[in-house]
Amino acid sequence: MKDIELQLKAELLSPSGKIPKQGVENWLKDAKEIIAEAQDVENKVRNGRYLCRAWNGKLVDEKTREMKEFLDKDPNASETLAMDGPSGGLPLPTSELVGEEAARKEIWACLMLEEVKKIGVWGMGSVGKTTIMKHIHNDLLKEQIFERVIWVTISMEFNVLKVQHDIASALKLKKDWPKEGDKLRRAAILSEMLKRAGKHVLILDDVWDEVSLEEVGIPEPSGSNGCKLVLTTRSERVCKYMGCTVIKVKPLSEQQALTLFLSKVGPNIVQNQTLMPILRLVVKECAGLPLTIVVIAGTLKGEEDPLIWKHALRELKERIEKLEGVEAKVIERLKFSFDHLKDEKVKYCFLHCALYPEDYEIKKDELIECWIEEGFIDDMGTRQEMKDKGHVILKKLEDNCLLENGSSGFVKMHDAVRDMALSITRMNP
């Protein structure tokens, strides 16, 4: 037992920030109790408390057998007895902030206030909530104000086991995370891990409904556990239900929207003063939503024909004039860019990306292989030529801002763009 105790202490003192594996601490505690009992029996025998020699021998044999059986169950000292502690986190790929600085400063100020434990960031879809929080996530890592910053995407289809798994993965617990077990046991393990995670921020992105922190295994944020919780949502009601300090992300002002549009539409358009009046009207139809602005600017990038701009303006107006509901109008504006993809095969390639889970980083090479297997890329003689064509299609989708650059060699689809793609596949199964 002494060897195991020493090994565990050595691992816990290592600079990698390890914590005891589940069960190791309990084993050591039980071992100490059994040893104490054995010593008590030994003292009583030595002092003649048990007068019958046969009884003495039987008692000693029984205690010896009990100790042997217990020690046979000791943790394997050839393996590590501690598991990796939570990771501080890695920077997230993100786009530039334009006009969202006021909301960003307000969120940051709340994070720095000791009395604020839970923050709810809300606003309509594609208004920039996730982008703001990604910047804050990365700034928190850079400033090292908190020991750990954890990012988990929730999404519309809330699944407790998936959320538990994602938090465990963010804490680097994958290899020690139980492959089996009910939600309650996982929640207990996760709760204990988060309590030991030190001063940390947990960001739950894209929350659609109330989340039971207890059910997931997230300790209620308090001064004693050092946790702060931030959630992004399209619902102010969710923020209030979960007891958050509420911060609303508003659409961009007219000037901010114009600045963002001009930064994406190409230098030749910026210098073309004859297009400015119609361009401003197109920007107005984007309703101050950063994603919509970026996607429509990408669709019209480099286009200098005034007639095409007039047609685009008329089309955008017609698309939304009969629609009710903010979310429906967002999807229809984004669909404008999809409908302007001239090649049907490129459209199929784009829609295929919506099959991946929300916020999923898609490996470019694997995605292109899937397109080839599905027949979305025409036979061009050699496999390499088909792969090259796949990269051209990817570039087209990225230029139109229908796909975002993720980590090196990966792409992602914004959740609002994915909603648009799924709405198309539902209408045309």
Compute the gyration radius: what is it? 29 Å
* Shape field: elongated
Which stretches are low in confidence, meaning pLDDT under 50 for 5 or more residues running?
6-17, 50-55
Within the largest sheet, what's the order of strands? 4-5-6-3-7
Using DSSP, what is the number of strands? Answer: 10
In terms of DSSP E residues, the strand content is 5-15%
Could you tell me the mean pLDDT?
84
- Class derived from helix and strand content: alpha/beta
Q: Please work out how many helical segments DSSP would assign.
A: 19
- How many strands, what sense, and barrel or not for the largest sheet? 5 strands, parallel
| Total individual domains | 3
Keywords: ATP-binding, Nucleotide-binding, Plant defense, Repeat
Protein name: Probable disease resistance protein At5g43730
Domain NB-ARC: 104-268
InterPro entries: Apaf_helical, NB-ARC, P-loop_NTPase, Plant_NBS-LRR, WHD_DRP
